[in-house]
């Protein structure tokens, strides 16, 4: 099968497209019909090695895109060599677009495109061709696949898919510095013609930037790009296909180029002089003012530091890292009276200097900060300012001048100053000060040995404004005079042996003196005049403010005299010279042969073992006296104990006697001794049967209710709380007087029924006797529970008793 073409408008283009495929069409050997090939294969049998050739004659088909004609576009023709033109063969196609985009003439095999094709949407279509017998519809040839390619034309313009673009370049960059790259895409076939060959150009902004026509790299065209003048540029870049030839399509995009900053501008102060004012009383570190230098750069290129070139003695400058301002503050105290105006030269310097632009000039600037000091009312100033030291003799008289303090008003008006002493530093008022002159005088006699220094605080105020005050410490040293005589350091005692030799050193003495002469102490020792005739001991002055005591004779007898008193006279160097006499006590002791002291007492006589009659009598008298004392102490204790027991007998609750003895009931008085229960109170016998029980046998609170009589007495006793208070007070007094109780606080509980109980006590302890005439008939009114008790205490009938 071979393609056949019809004449028409697209014949030339189709022919040109098919030239490249003819070599493929005829590269195979000549094909015979499928039928003939099939018959030969059958005759020769399977042993034939002859190649079987197909009956199709194939080519690739091409169709031009974007066809705008009204008739279907002829694509090509399929034909088999078995088709002899008799109309017995039917051609069919299947696959992509078959029957819709592509149709075939079943009789002739002509293929047409019925729709407008776009290569950019689909570049080729794969179909399958089939030749069948028209009558039997049996395939005459095996189904074969073929491709219809869409032929490209230049119908797509270049497009910048990543636009718009934003790039950056540093200012002052040299010519040709690469900024960025732009890329345009063309949807046309890059393998066919020049439809996809794109070139670039700058439409707007070509004065400052250029673009490489083939690569799309944008570069600087000038070297004086200045960010401070213009910080961004808008370019229009065009891309044209067909290699820029006439008729080519084009597309454009916008490119924004940002100019980045470099440190090419030094700091500049807007003013060459700034003026500020500050009070002379402002504290150190007080800010005076702020100045700032401007920098046309941005970012870290504007970072700067400040320093003082002149006037740094009284002021300092720091940099505010947030605002980049120079803060001028006080370094030392200001004085309006000394200098009223100060000029401070402040310099601003860039921190990050680019060495490439050093030749552009100095990256620093200076300005003058003029500071005016304003006057304030200041307190007086002492001279000297750090305090005064004065000296005075300790024997100075009251009213003597100690010294003069001076202070002045530092202000221009120089107001008068008044002085006073802070009495919290001189509570004894030892010193006085003249309020006008500042002269300090003595108010009391001094004693250096009591206090060698006095530190007082002097206050100076303005005469017209006492709020303006200042203080100064005055240290007064008391100069010593020789007013204390020297004394022996301690009450010395010396010990020497009986057999000591002449000239032997016994003891060394020293003295003390409370005075402190400037030349030091010098003491002189000698024996007192009353000891001038002493023949036992001598004194030797060692000349180092000590003296040695030596023996003058050999041998002492401690039985004759065991203690010697040696008066010593001590004199200081003055002036004036003062003296005192001290006594050295010397003990004569018995020593062993090597000179060690054994005993310093006189020898005692040994007492005889046999006692004399007088001594025996004295010893017996002493023993008798001791025995009498012991008996007296015991008697006193027993007497005190009896008193305490008598005082406590009234309260039965303080004495509880336990017994565990069964008896025959209340009427059985023989089984146990009732007196053991009744010994707490003294119950006397009833004097008569009609008189009732003795009221003294009852406790006091019961007596009170009985004596009151009737309901009125009971009510009075119930409301009389003084009864309870007296009872408790009595118990407290007993506890305080009891020497046997522990010497610490204790908790004691007392209880009694009071005066409101009509039953009084039901205990048998208070029963006077078996023949008591007490009336217990009221027990019958208490109910059935007390009926048995009422039966026990009810009075018996005479008849029953007689029987």
Short description:
With 803 residues, this protein is an alpha+beta fold. It has ten helices and 39 strands.
Q: Keyphrases for this structure?
A:
disordered C terminus, Immunoglobulin-like, calcium, disordered N terminus, calcium ion binding, cell membrane, 10 helices, 39 strands, signal, alpha+beta, 14% helix, cadherin binding, 803 residues
Q: Can you describe what's shown?
A:
The protein has ten helices and 39 strands. The protein has 803 residues and is of the alpha+beta class. Helix 6 packs across helix 7. The radius of gyration is 72 Å and the shape is elongated. Mean pLDDT is 78; it is low at 1-57, 603-610, 651-655, 679-712, 714-719, 764-770 and 797-803.
What percentage of the residues does DSSP assign to strands (E)?
25-35%
Major sheet description = 5 strands, mixed
CATH architecture of one domain: Sandwich
Fraction of helical residues: 10-25%
Structural class determined from secondary elements: alpha+beta
User: How much is the average pLDDT?
Assistant: 78
How large is the radius of gyration?
72 Å
Spatial gap, N to C terminus: 176 Å
Tally the helices: what do you get?
Answer: 10
Instruction: Please give the number of β-strands.
Output: 39
Which stretches are poorly predicted, pLDDT < 50 over at least 5 residues? 1-57, 603-610, 651-655, 679-712, 714-719, 764-770, 797-803
The CATH homologous superfamily of one domain corresponds to: Cadherins
Principal-axis shape equals elongated
Q: Mind telling me the CATH class of one domain?
A: Mainly Beta
CATH topology of one domain: Immunoglobulin-like
